[in-house]
Design brief:
By secondary structure, this protein is of the alpha/beta class. Helices cover 44% and strands 22% of the residues. The two termini are 31 Å apart.
């Protein structure tokens, strides 16, 4: 799939590259996507300065990525590809870590979102990662990029306690963006 539009947004010490595949109408501006990602990076204590790439695409590309990287057939709404080890997100490193002192921007990772799936989930009232939230496609897309960015920072929802903590943080972040 070819790139239709790519934009680079700088927010504080974050650089968010937003790539929209041909034919994808994201329903949300690159600036709004970048704000959601930056808020999640702050909350996840990502090293600074840092960059993240967000690819807005469709079910077909997500299905290919899901099979290749997760061994799962079929599309999903969001996939994250972290580039840093968990210790990169230790308390305190975010503001004083070696990456900042040297001024080098580190790449935290990539997020791929199926805008097609986000729109479908929102229209069917199956949003919010819980499958029971009714809101706009733009809100669903904000959630998915927030969710993906938190995964880049080491957050997970494999067990009920972690899932509850991640969902609570997502709600706080979405209320504040």
């Amino acid at each position: 799939m070819s790139v239709h539009h790519s934009s680079r947004v700088y927010l504080r010490l974050w650089r968010i590259d937003v790539v929209r595949r041909t034919g994808i109408d994201a329903t949300l501006s690159s600036a709004a996507i970048a704000r959601a990602v930056a808020a999640a990076l702050e909350a996840g204590r990502a090293p600074r300065p840092a960059s993240v790439t967000v690819v807005l695409t469709d079910d077909e590309e997500l299905a290919d990525l899901n099979l290749e990287h997760m061994g799962v057939h079929g599309p999903t709404d969001v996939l994250s590809f972290p580039m840093l080890p968990p210790e990169a997100f230790d308390e305190g490193r975010a503001s004083t870590g070696p990456e900042r002192s040297r001024g080098r921007r580190v790449h935290v990772g990539d997020i791929a979102v199926s805008v097609e799936r986000a729109v479908e989930q929102a229209e069917a009232g199956r949003g919010g990662q819980t499958g029971d939230v009714r809101w706009s496609a733009a809100d669903e897309l904000r959630l998915l990029v927030t969710h993906g960015a938190l995964h880049l920072c080491g957050w997970d929802h494999a067990d009920p306690e972690d899932e509850a903590a991640m969902r609570a943080l997502e709600r706080r972040l979405l209320d504040g963006v």
